[in-house]
Amino acid sequence: MAATCSKYVAKHKGTPGTLTHRVYLKTADNVPISPFHDIPLKVRDGVYNMVVEMPRWTNAKFETSKKEKLNPIIHDSKVYDGVERVRYVHNVFPYHGYMWNYGSIPQTWEDPNFIDPHTGVGGDNDPVDILEIGSKVGYVGEVKEVKILGVIALIDKDETDWKVISIDINDPMAESLNDIEDVNEKMPGLLPASRDFFRNYKVPRGGKYNIFGFDGEWQGREFTENLLEETHGRWRELLNRESKGKIMTENTSNAGSPWHISKKEARDILKSNPPYTPGAAVPPPDSAQYVSFVERTVSEPVCSVVEREGVEGEDCNMVVEIPRWTNAKMEISKEEPLNPIKQDVKKGKLRFVNNVFPYHGYIWNYGAIPQTWEDPAHVDENTKAKGDNDPLDAVEIGSGVANRGEVKQVKILGVIAMIDEGETDWKIVCIDRNDPLAEQLNDIGDVEKVMPGYLEATRDWFRIYKFPTGKPMNEFAFNGEWKNKAFADNIIKETNAHWKALMTNKGVADDVETKNTSVQNSHGLITTDEATQILNKIPAATDAGPAADPSTQNQCFVKRTVSEPVCA
Question: Which of 4, 79, 112, 403 has the maximal Cβ count within 10 Å?
Fold first, then answer.
């Protein structure tokens, strides 16, 4: 596999998901190079090169290898239970993998023997890390030309580990971002979220919270560019060492260095690797789908990977319409016979929800509670608003990513009363009865204890998710407070009664299709043969549909400090 850009080509070797996977870089004229030593630090004044190691919203822990000739990008590994395995970062709520394109700056080196005056500790022995905050999702081995905006001084295991923040010069936002203050103004929340990520991302696997120099404050562009010049100078010293150390410095472009090699020698290095076999790829472990919860005010992690036995309590069914971390706006159709799940359409276009930072699509498995109906003729005594003419919505907060159309048996935990364009739109929160955390969650109060931040983020998501499309922010009854399981159970019973009236009394809602194969005494009951005939009239599924809307790669930034009301 070869991924191309104007100057460089990413060449894959080995099998994805295994210790053999390597991504080498070559020039456009097919000369193998080192992403550490051969790609220039600068393209021109004010524009720097960046090598993407981990694209946004991915979990595989890739890094530029210091131990192998030509420094391929490798899938990092660690010994677990005596076995070396490839690594994946946890999804530390509310983040999905890495929240930016993450990589390294070529021709820089954080010297472990140099005690940084700002942090008081030596470097981490790596190229300088960089995060790119533009809208486009990169790919492993992509070389981006970026504008430097600032830096934060992470201290990881008593080593200096600078994290530079940048933006692709071709990104639509690039012209408006020139220094660190611009990021706060144009992308509200990104800087504190980035700091939060770096502080917490190792905690779910038993690591310690990271700390920062400068009390965690981001430094500006001028400071960062001076830092890059310093680390570039240390890289130059590294490259020109006569004695071979533990860092491989073979290169094809620095003719004066002791470890310059010929094009043939470079090609032989690539040939020594096994061929690229994507068909044999090993999928990531289930843990790469899990969400981990880290308490921001205590020293111990609370994660969603625990042992559990047994199930108690009453369950409901939930139909999954939209799996977690997806954007396509799917919903049960009220207008079509047998109510298939279909993609919503607005103004002739398929709908996708925006990625409102820091969220990636939907942050839970989202769907509906069957045999419920929010009657638009019924004014709810709590919200003083009519129903939205849909089944009850449900968010399932378990660790797994569900399949569209999957029917889950869930424990009901609570509910929030959203008011959407003047209509009552209850949002039930629940958890798959087979989830590892299900035994610990029995009511709404348990969610905050075991999954800190999830309820607040869920309310925030529902409040703002339509805002990027020009709609007002949504409001809530009860001052936005979550109601408990008993209250939610009553809402389900009430809307089930409305559904029963819909099914047994003609004329209750002529715009809702009631055909079914199981509800006796309903006016929409049909035979299985009739139902089969309905399905047979639908075109067979194909993969020939249109590509996902480009907006599904973008991120939207919404200021929470606005004048729109939060509560009803």
Answer: 112
pTM confidence score: 0.84
- Residues 58, 275: contact at Cβ < 8 Å? no
- Lookup: tokens for 506: 């003609």
Q: What is the largest CA-CA distance in the chain?
A: 89
Radius of gyration of the chain (CA): 27
Give the pLDDT of residue 568: 23
CA distances from 180 to 145, 193, 296 (A): 18, 14, 25
Handedness of CA 195, 196, 197, 203 (dihedral sign): positive
Q: Within 10 Å of residue 384's Cβ, how many Cβ atoms?
A: 11
How far is Cα 517 from Cα 371, in angstroms, rounded to an integer?
A: 13
Instruction: Dig out the tokens for 519 from the structure.
Output: 């509800």
DSSP, residue by residue, 449-497 = HHSTTHHHHHHHHHHHTTGGGTPPPPEESGGGPPB-HHHHHHHHHHHHH
> Closest by alpha carbon to 288, among 320, 324, 251?
324
Query: How distant, in Å, are the alpha carbons of 139, 410, 462 from that of 393?
Result: 35, 13, 12
| Res 178: pLDDT | 97
Query: What are the φ and ψ backbone dihedral angles of 254, each rounded to 5 degrees?
Result: -100, 85
Mean pLDDT by 10 residues, the chain (568 residues): 69 96 96 98 97 97 97 93 92 94 98 95 97 96 98 96 98 97 95 95 88 96 98 96 89 94 96 94 83 61 30 75 96 95 91 95 97 95 94 96 95 97 96 96 96 96 94 95 97 96 86 93 92 91 76 87 34
Tell me if the bond preceding 283 is cis, omega within 30° of 0.
no
- Do 486 and 428 touch, CB atoms closer than 8 A? no
Element (H, E) at 159: strand 159-168
